[in-house]
Design a protein that fits this description.
mainly alpha
Length: about 90
């Protein structure tokens, strides 16, 4: 997955090494794990928020979907009555 991520950013090996060195210089060896932990928490919160929004949208459109399904069933019944009139 990491290789795919770097391909997406179109970074070469040398560029990745420079980025890692800059991060080490800025945050130090002890600060990098804390930085990674904070980044992971932030990504997790973002993912949870996105999932919450998606769930809210699905719940809010659930009533509309149910109403549309009811109307479709009514139309199908009417079409059956037209094609196969009751005796």
């Amino acid at each position: 997955m990491n290789a795919l991520f770097f391909l997406f950013l179109n970074l070469g090996g040398g560029e990745v090494v420079v980025i890692v060195l800059v991060i080490l210089l800025l945050f130090g060896g002890k600060g990098v794990p804390n930085l990674a932990k904070a980044l992971g928490k932030g990504l997790r919160e973002f993912k949870d928020a996105a999932n919450g929004i998606q769930k809210d949208i699905q719940e809010s459109t659930g009533g509309i979907t149910h109403t549309i399904q009811e109307h479709i069933q009514e139309v199908k019944k009417e079409m059956d009555n037209i094609h196969n009139p009751e005796k």
